[in-house]
Amino acid sequence: MLKFAKKFGHSYEKSFFRDVLRRTSSPKNIxxxxxxxxxxxxxxxxxxxxxxxxxxxxxxxxxxxxxxxxELTTFSPGFEPFxxxxxxxxxxxxxxxVMNLWPLLEACLHLGYLDRAFSILTSLYAIKTHRQFFIxxxxxxxxxxxxxxxxxxxxxTVSQLENHVFTTLQTNFSGVDYNDRxxxxxxxxxxxxxxxxxxxxxxxxxxxxLSMGLKGQKEIMKNTDILTLDDYIILINDLKxxxxxxxxxxxxxxxxxxxxxxxxxxxxxNGCITNGGGMLQxxxxxxxxxxxxxxxxxxxxxxxxxxxTIGMKVVxxxxxGLSLSDNxxxxxxxxxxxxxxxxxxxxxxxxxxxxxxxxxxxxxxFDNLLEEINHERQIQLERRATDxxxxxxRHDFEESKKRGELVGIKKKLNVTLWEWYEKMLPLVExxxxxxxxxxxxxxxxxxxxxxxxxxxxxxxxxxxxxKMTVITILDLLKLNSTGGVIEGMRTARAVISVAKSxxxxxxxxxxxxxxxxxxxxxxxxxxxFKMLVKRAKFSFRDSELEKSKILWPQDIRAKMGSILxxxxxxxxxxxxxxxxxxxxxxxxxxxxxxxHTYQYHNGSKLGVIKIxxxxxxxxxxxxxxxxVQPQLLPMLIKPRPWKSWNNGGxxxxxxxxxxxxxxxxxxxxxxxxxxxxxxxKIYEGVNVLGDTAWTVNKRVFEVMSKVWNTGGDFLKIPAxxxxxxxxxxxxxxxxxxxxxxxxxxxxxLANEFSKNRSMRCDANYKLEIxxxxxxxxxxxxHNLDFRGRAYPLSPHFNHLGNDMSRGLLIFWxxxxxxxxxxxxLKIHLANLFGFDKTPFQDRVKYAEEHLADIKDSAExxxxxxxxxxxxxxxxxxxxxxxxxxxxxxxxxxxxxxxxQPVHQDGTCNGLQHYAALxxxxxxxxxxxxxxxxxxxxxxxxxxxxxVQRLEKASAKxxxxxxxxxxxxxxxxxxxxVMTNVYGVTSIGATEQINKQLLPVFxxxxxxxxxxxxxxxxVFASIRKLFKSAHxxxxxxxxxAKVISKSIRIDVDERSLKxxxxxxxxxxxxxxxxxxLPIVQPYRxxxxxxxxxxxxxxxxxxxxQVNPVNSRKQKAGFPPNFIHSLDxxxxxxxxxxxxxxxxxxxxxxxxxxxxxxxxxxxxxSLRDEFIKLHEVDLIERLKNEFDDRYRNYLQIMQILRSSPxxxxxxxxxxxxxxxxxxxVTIMDEIYLExxxxxxxxxxxxxxxxxxxxxxxxxxxxxxxxxxxxKSMESASSSSGIIALTPLKIPxxxxxxxxxxxxxKNSKYFFS
Length: 1310
Fold this sequence. Notes:
- It is built from 49 helices and 26 strands.
- By secondary structure, the protein is mainly alpha-helical.
- The strands form eleven sheets. Strands 3-7-6 form a three-stranded antiparallel sheet. Strands 10-12-13 form a three-stranded mixed sheet. Strands 17-24-23 form a three-stranded antiparallel sheet, with helices on one face.
- A hairpin with a 6-residue loop joins strand 4 (573-579) and strand 5.
- Helix 3 runs antiparallel to helix 4 (114-125), helix 7 runs antiparallel to helix 8 and helix 30 packs antiparallel against helix 33 (874-888).
- The radius of gyration is 34 Å and the shape is globular.
- The termini are far apart.
- 44% of the residues are buried.
C-alpha cells in the first residue's frame, strides 16, 4: 500500500473562488494586479502582539503605513480576471459544470447514495481543469464511505478502507494523489473501528498513516471536521503518538485543562467523556404552548393588543429562543439568592438586575453567568423558527376548534395557516417519497417525468417535509407586496426565495450536526471549562464556515421552489363571503389564497403570484407578527468576530463580509485580500460595531405600547384602518374629465391606505421585537455593502431604523455623566429639536430654558403638554427628556449613570470629503472643516447663492426668477445639496425641489415647471461653492467612462475564429485606504430560461460573466467612491474608539457614544479624517488606475482624411491582402499583443522584431494626445475605428485648503 503513498509537494488550495476561477486560465494569463494602498514594507503584528497592545491613539492607517508613502504595492489575486475581451465558452462551461456537480455530490453524500456520488466523482474527474483540486471532492466521498461502509456486513475494516483509497485513486482516478485530509480520514476510521481491538495494532496503523503526511502532523491534525475530540484524546493520552502542540489552537485549549487526562481511561469514555451529550447537547425539547410561562412576565409591562397571550408566549419561548430552561433558572436563582436581589422574582429583567449590582465583583459574576446562559439561548434563537411557527399554528387551531370558531371568514390567521400546513404536508411528503423512489430506480425504467424529477430529487429530500412546508408558507407571506407588485410578488423571486430558505435550513442543520458530533463527548461542568468549550465551538464553526463553498444551482432552486409553491397554491384557501344574486342572502365559502397570473411592470410582462385581497387584509391586521416571525434578530451574545470574508456574525447562519448579490468578481477580490491579511483592520472595525451591547428603553416602550394599543393616529404611527373607503362611483355618462379625476382620487386613496397599512405593520414588527427583548442584553452583528458601508445583519429592529427604533435603544453599559456628559446630553436634546445651527452654549441654554417642559414630557408623556412631540425626532427626544429628568432628580445631576447614546452628525458628510479632496476653502468653510465660532449651514448658504442668482435674473426681466426669488428657503434646496454629491440627476433634483414648492403653487404642472427652472440655479450655485470638488466629481465620472469602455490586450487566439468585436468587460475597481477592494457590480444581466410547473422563469446565473453596463459604471463611480471614503472614516473611528474602551455605534455619517465620551470621540473623528486626507487620495487613485489598467486599449473614431486615418487605411489594406480576408478588430488586438510580447522578451532578436513590427496601435501611438484630439471624428460615417492605449485623464487642479485646519474645528461633527 505504501508504494502509492508518495509525498507530492503540490499546494493544496482549499479556497472557493480561487479554486473555481483559477481553472479558467493558465498562470501565464494571470497578470491583473490588485492594487493596495499600503507601503511596500508591510507591517504585521507578531503572534504575541495583539491589537489592543498598541497605543489607543494610533490610527489604523498608521499601522498599515497608509500615510507614509504614495507608492503602491501590487499582487496577483490568483484568479482569472473578469474583464476579458472575450468569453471562453470552454472554460466557462467547465466552471459551471463544477459548480453544478458540487452541490449534487454534497446532497448524495448527505443522503448516503454512494453509488450515485461515485458517478458524480467520475464526472468531476473528467473535467481536466478541475483535476488538480479533485482530491478535495474525493475526500468528502471517502469520509462518507468510512461512515456507512462499502460492505454488506456493515462498516469496512481498516485494511478495506485503505485498499479502497489507493486502488480507487490508481484505477479510477489516475494522476490524483492523496493529501493530508485523506490521511485524517484513515486515522479517524482506524480509531473508530479499532479502539476496542489490539492497542498495538491500532498504534501501528496510526504510525503508518502519520508517516504518510505530506506537510507534517499539524496539517493532519487541523482537520477538525474529520477528527473528533475522542480521536484527539486517544492520539495524545492513550497512544501518545501526537503532541498537544500539533493540535489546532481551540482543541489545545481543552487539553490545557486536562481534557481526558492521563489518569483517565479516555478510550473507555470515563471521566470527562460520556455518551450522553452532556452540557453541549443542544436543547431539542418539545415546544409546548399550552402551559403558562410565568418567566416571561415583563415586570408589569402592558401587553400589546396585537398579540394575545399565547402568541407572546410563542415569541418568547419558541421562535426567539429567549425562554429560560429549568437549569438556567436554577443557575440564576442561585446567583440571586446571594442577597443581591430578592429570590422571589418570577421574571428576570436582566437590565434591572444589572443596575442593582453594587460591586465590581458582583457585576463580573453576573456578566459571566449571563454570557453563559445567553450563549445557550442564542443557539435556540437561531435554530427553532420553523418548529415554533408550526406549533403556534397548531395551538391556535386547537383552541379555535374548542371554541367552535373553525367556520366562517373570521378565523385567526394562525388557524388558517395550520389548515394550509395540514393539507400541504401530505403532498410534500408524497413528493419526497417519489424523489427517494426515483433515486433508487433502475435507469432503464425511468420515464420522462422521472427524468425531470431526477434533476432536483437529491435536494428535495435533504430537509424534513415538515420544515419545508413551514418555510414555504412563511416565505410566501413575507414576500407580499415586494418587487413592485401590489398584493403579491414576482414568481421568479418567490421560487428562488423559497428554495434558498430551504438550502439555508439544510446548511444550518448540517453545521449543528457536525458541531454536535465533534463535542458530544465533553461533560465537564466547571464554568472555566465551559468557557473553553464555547471558545472551541466558535473556532470549530469558523473552520466549518470557511470550508463552505457550495451553492445550489439556480435552475434547481427554481424547480424546487416552484414545486413547493405549486403545492401550497393548490391547497391554500381563504374564507370569502358574498351576496347570492338570486336569494339576496349573504353566503360564505372558500377561495384560493394565491393565484398565478401576469402583469406589466415598467413596460415588462412579469409572472406574478397574487394574494387574495381577504388574505392581504388579514396580513395587515394585528396578528401578522405572531404568525410570520423574523428570522434574523439581534444576538444575545457578542457576534462571532469577523476573521475572514465568509466567517463572522451569527452562530449558524453563514454571512459574507460584503453583501455582493451573488457577484463572484467582488468575492474573488475580497477572498484574495482576506487570504493575504490585507483587511484585518476592516475586520477589527466591523467587530467593534458588533461588540456594542444594547438593551431596550423600558420607559419609552411603555409609552409606545400605550399609544399603540389605542389604535389611533399618533406621530408617524397611522391609525388602524381595516377597510379601504373609496369615493362612490360616478354616473355612467359622467364627464370624462370628472371620471379621470375620480380615478385619480381613488388611486390616491388606495395608495394612502396601502402606505398606512404598511407603516403600521412595520411599527408592529418593531414593537413586538422590542417587547421580546425588554431587559435583555443584545448585540447587532454587522457586515458591509460593496462600498464598505456597515449595516446590521438583523434587518427589522436596529439603530439604523426610524425614529421609533432609535428611541427604543439604549446602551447596556451605563456611564456617569460628569460635567461634560451633562452638557452633551443637553446639546443632544437641542439637536433633536432641530436647534442645531447655533453655538453649543446656545444649545445648552435652549435645554435649560425648557427644564420644566423636559420634566413634564418625562413624567407625563401622554397626558402632559406634549412638548417632546414638537421635536424633529420626537421618540429620541422623549428618551433624552427622561434621561435628563432622571439626572436632575439627583442632588448632583453629573453623578447620574447614563445609558443614552448621544449622536454626532457630519455636516453633509459627502461634501466634507469632496471639499477635502478638492481643497475648496470656501466649500470647506461651509461644511465646518474650518474652525469657526459658530456652526456653518451649507444649505442656508446655497439658498443664499440661489437667491442672488435669481435677483440678477429678475433684474434682467426673467419672470420665473421674479416669482421664485422670495420663495427660496433652506429646506427648498437642502435635499438637492445633500444628494448632489451622490450623483442626483437633474430629473431627480427637480422632483426633490417640486416636493417643497408644490404646497406653494398648488398646481402640480405649474410647480414642476418652476422646479425644473430652479434646479439649474441650485446646481450652478453648488458648482460655484465647490468648484474644485466638482472638477474631481467630473474627473471620476470620466475615468469610469473610459475604463468601462476599455479592452484588455490578452485576447485568446481561439476568439479570432469568429472575429467579433470584443465585449466591454472591465469594471471600475479601486482600493479603499483600509485595503478593501471595491468592484462596481454593474453588468448587463443575462437570464437563463428555466421551465417550471408554475411558469417559465428567467433567472440570472451568478457565475456568468457579462459585459459591464457603462452608463451605470459612470453614474455610480463618483458617489460610490465618496461612500467608500466615508465608510473608511467610520471604520477608522470605530477602531480608535474601540481601542480606547468607548461604546461606539454608527449610522453611516452619524456616530454615537455615551454623553461623557463625546469629546474623546470627536477628537478621534477629527484625527482620523485628517490622517485619511493628508494623503492625496485622488493622486493615489490615479496611480492605481494607471497601474491596474496599464495594458488596456480604448476605441476611438478618427477622421478618414486625417494623417492617422490615412496610415491606418493603408495598413489595413496590406493586412487584408496578407490574411486573404477582411481584417477584424480582434486581429488588430492579437497583433498588438504579440508585439508587446516580443518587446518584453529577453531574446534580443525578438525585441528587435517587436520594434520593427507595425500594428494599428503602434501607428496611433506616433501621435500626441493633442494631435489625436484634433483628428477625432464625431460621426461614424466620416471616421474609422482606431485602437489607442487607454489613457486615464489628468487630475484637475486642487485648491489651497489644508485639511490639518480641521484639528480645531469643534463643529466638524456636532
